[in-house]
Structure formats: C-alpha cells, structure tokens
Amino acid sequence: MRSLLFPLLLAGAAAGAQTPAAPAAHPLAGRWGWTLPGTACTETLEYRADGTQASRSGDQATQSRYTVARVPSVPGFYRLTETVLESNHAPDCAGDLREPGDAPTTRFLQFSPRQDQLLVCREESLKACFGPLRRAPG
Asked: Is residue 35 pLDDT above 60, yes or no?
C-alpha cells in the first residue's frame, strides 16, 4: 500500500507545481486615437504593458509613465495616472502644454462593452469627458 501511495503523492505535487497562467492584458494596452470635433487635429495614444505611454496630440509629442487600476470602480471607471517624462514643448490639440516636471495627471476611463472604444474623464462621472477614442487595429 505504501508503494502505491508514493506515486500518487508525487503526481499530485507535480500537478500543483504547474506555472500559473499569465494575467490577461489590461484593456488599456494598445493604440488609441481620436480627432478633436470640428478640427483636423488628431490624437494618438499608445499604452504599453510596461507602464510607459507615447502620445501625439496635434504638434505635441510626449513620453510618459502611467499606472492604471486593474479593475474598475463601482461606477465602472478605471483610475489612470500619468507622469510626463519627455516632451517636445509644443501645444496639443487643445492648445495645452504637458511638460516633464508637471504634477501627475489623473483621469478616469470608461470602456465600451467590446473594449474597442474609451472615454477619458476628469472625474468618475460622464460630465467632463472627451472621446470616444477608438482602438487602432493591430
């Protein structure tokens, strides 16, 4: 009986030692774009899985570091905080400048059910948002 029990214990230990599956990519990862209504000014944002972001908005180009909540809040928003690391010192589509050394910017994101569009909001509310940004193919 003892000789039969040992192989069963070994098999159970091997099964428990399997590598867990990698976590699913965050819905923010990827390239997003939109055009400011009434203009030809476009904005393109690329969020990489390593926590870096590259953006182009009108003449402005920036590189940032970001953190984003893994799960949405009860009202359905993901908290996003970005810190600019590099900038070409040109204005964005709204005429604003984002520079290294600026205070981190916090926004709240809400994704469409298919996660192919998102709204970017100043607070956890749909009162002050822009978008929808659309996920770029690929």
From this structure: yes
Domain count, the chain: 1
Q: What is the pLDDT of residues 56-96, one digit of tens each?
A: 999 999 999 999 999 999 999 999 999 999 999 999 998 99
User: 130: closest CA among 67, 51, 42?
Assistant: 42
What percent of the chain is helix, strand and coil (3-state, nearest 5)? 10, 40, 50
84 neighbors 62 (Cβ within 8 angstroms): yes
Distance CA 63, CA 76 (A): 27
Would 81 be classed as within a structural domain? Answer: yes
HSE value, Cβ hemisphere, 13 Å, CA-based, for 11: 5
* Structural domain containing residue 128: 26-132
Q: Is the peptide bond before 72 cis (omega within 30 degrees of 0)?
A: no
What share of the chain has pLDDT > 70, as a percent? Answer: 82
Residue 58 in domain: yes
